[in-house]
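User: Assemble these into one structure.

Assistant: Restating your components, then the assembled model:
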Amino acid sequence: MFIAMNRFKIATGSENEFIDIWKKRETYLDNVPGFKEFHLLQGPSHDDYTLFASHSVWESREAFETWTKSEAFRKAHTTAGGAKGIYLGPPQFEGFDEVI
Amino acid sequence: MFIAMNRFKIATGSENEFIDIWKKRETYLDNVPGFKEFHLLQGPSHDDYTLFASHSVWESREAFETWTKSEAFRKAHTTAGGAKGIYLGPPQFEGFDEVI
């Protein structure tokens, strides 16, 4: 199992706008080989931002990396984004391999 | 769904020692109400450390918080730890609520 997470720092007060962007977004993931599950997660709030994370589960790191080079990935990311002012910096990607 | 993660910065070269600690550890989670799944994940490596994360999935934040106050939690954490030198700082807890 491989878990791909992108961490987003969203300016305090812009949480609902960020969630709406994701609710309207088409991820084109359903038929991607090796894809298992996707969730948007809301993490802890700090003084000036709330942490969010996109969280997708894959059968393997290879399946995830193949997807990142695919047309489905390109299509999903042309619609990503939204108002720049809601983001405190760029998203931070972290890939995790199952150890136990 | 609620995901509880603890992020561990493990000194470069100590990765296998850290994994062994977890392999030998008894988590006492199997019969905890609302518990769904546990994994130890290995994340990206940096200059002086490798990121690991414990990753447990729960039916709700309430189920997780009830567990943290339980005897099962206390038992699981009396055996936690290992050699102090392998950790670059304390673990960082982050709880995530499912939004989508």
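The two ends of chain B are 10 Å apart (CA to CA).
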